[in-house]
Amino acid sequence: MSSTTDEPLFLHDDDEEIKVDKPKGFWKILIVDDDQEIHAVTKMALADVVISEKPLQFLHAYSGSEALDRLSEHDDVAMILLDVVMETDDAGLRVAQDIREKLGNDEIRIVLRTGQPGYAPEENVVKAYDINDYKTKTELTRSRLLTTVFSAVRSYQQLKTINENRRGLRKIIHSASNLMERHSIVNFSEGVVTQIASLLGLNAEGIVGARAPHKDNDILVLGAAGHFANSIHKSLSTLNSEDIESSVRQCLNEKRHIQKEHATVFFIDGQEHQAAAYIETDQKVAEYDQELLEVFLANIAVGFENANLFEELRTAAYLDPLTGIPNRAEFTRQLQNISEKPCQETAIAVVDIDHFSDVNDGLGQDIGNLLLRSVALRLTEQLGNNVFVSRISADVFGITGPKNIVTPDNLSQLFILPFRAGEHYIPLQVTCGFTSAENTEQVNGKGLLKQVYIALKSAKTHSFERFDFYEPIMEQETQRRLELVRKLRSDFADRKLEVWYQPQVELESERIIGVEALLRWPQSDGSFISPAEFIPLAEYSGLIVDIGSWVIEESCRQIQTFDEQGLPNLRIAINVSVPQFRKRDFPELVEKQIEQSGISPERVELEITESILMEEPELVADILKRLKLQGVKVAIDDFGVGFSSLSYLQKLPLNRIKIDKTFVNNSAHKSGQIIIETIVDMAHRLGLEILAEGIEEPEQRDYFIGLDCSEGQGFYFAKPMPAIELIKLLKEQKELTGTLRQSQRS
């Protein structure tokens, strides 16, 4: 295998290699040939060759398939010396094609070698397979092989630098376009490291550090690449390298680039923020690169400033400015992460401070703010680093962490001692809702937030212990209530609600002297939804005000109907809710309905509960006096079951007291009789009329007659009924001119 015009293959000629004592890295050369001798002589010929201060490292393959395996294992092969004819006549050509198409590697330099050139015409192969060089084995003397290797490796080096450069720029551009993402400054800073290393033709091994906000002496690693990658978001001191720390500090303090023996530190000078990029390299920056780097760093400074600005905006968006802890948006993001990677050992809680508004009202908002800071501080310090604490609304804190820490007992313990707010020490009580990461099936972060709020509401409504854990049935019940509210609103708009009437009688004669208007909600299947269920929903949704106005209007119209049909001169008692009474124009609304119906005001009796009296007694008294002046009568419903002061009975313009049916049911017992007789005696002394509710037995009727209680109401006399049935009953009573009981027997 020799030529008459050149030296024998691989015969030594003048050395062209440059030797260094401490090589940094290698150029990987893959030799692919089915002849082991070719491997040996190629390795011998290229021994001790150094290109750009890096020696060669040889990989070996003896078939096309084995070559592809080696390339899959090593993505940094600079050059492949590839035999054409191996297991097949075109095995090498197929490898070349797979390198470019299947592996997508456009950096590796491919040099084809063949001992049988007839199998692969040179011109066609170079064009079709993106080959960098094509030689017959007889052409490759050692000097020519060296020339080929030097040319290929340097071409690879240049192409690699260009691609690294492009990738670094792409990373910076990408991070700049996604600055609002959580780690935008990290992506940007990592791109800085990669880009500088690419410009210098180095591996991306380095960090970007800057002074941590609010900590003058601490330097934070913002971005990192290579073996520094795990140091992001950590203090520079955690690298345990005095040389790196001192170099970065020197760069930031002196505000200039620092050249060290094994590293260069570049100063990034922004208007408000400065950073230092530490790059590991033994190579000094060449003069022709310095100008390029200065331009690059000037642009990077602008980008770094923008990245910090957006990072501050992002921080502001996810940080509560009052307490300095994460806000609701950040808490929701934490819950989203939990929902995507659920852990059964993670608990989620919301902590609601009871009656916090009293602090603001009594001591002022400044003290309230200090109190919230004090609560946030105790929660974060006492619960530890493994627990995430946030403020998600005015006086509500969101917490996530291990189940053995985020527990009702642990949280309640934190609120045993009072909290300091300025000169005040304020005791607090809280209500808590809990859920678990186990409840994340088909639920995202917002769904988990809804779960803990459902548990919180349940704790406020039902739990004596002031905490509750989410159960799916809670959500089902909540959804049912929301659906009922929606349907109630729709049915009310479509006038599907009905007003029924229950007779009120004179106990001695059992003659109907009045009726109570009662709301009914019929369903399409003939059933009714209980008022005990839908009235609270109407009050909760605010719909009760409109419904209450309609009931007054309907009742006044019904009195007008009674008069038109010549029926007895009846009154109608109408229940009034707390929200209705809160409207200051309520007396005007009643007056307007009475005037439009053309009825006497004395025919209308408004029934209020003791809960209304407890709201604002002075305001209630004023409204009742205005109604009294109109001629409207007023009764207290369910008297005795509330907690209002009896002194208000003297101040309020009342006409009637309705004894609650719970007392009537106990009228056969001595203890029950004592309470009833006390109420009756008091009412008589105050000049008030008395009506006993819920009479169901003749003995109860007789008992109240004996107490000189004149009126009664209950199933013993009649159940609630639609207006058409009431009219029929009243007509029968009129015709018979007898008692209600006689008319029912007939």
Automatic annotation (TrEMBL):
PROSITE patterns: EAL, GGDEF, RESPONSE_REGULATORY. Keywords: Phosphoprotein. The modification 4-aspartylphosphate is found at D83. This is Diguanylate phosphodiesterase. The keyword Phosphoprotein applies. Residues 481-734 form the EAL domain. Residues 28-152 form the Response regulatory domain. Pfam families: DUF3369 (PF11849), EAL (PF00563), GGDEF (PF00990), Response_reg (PF00072). InterPro entries: CheY-like_superfamily, Cyclic-di-GMP_PDE-like, DUF3369, EAL_dom, EAL_sf, GGDEF_dom, Nucleotide_cyclase, Rev_trsase/Diguanyl_cyclase. It comes from the Bacteria.
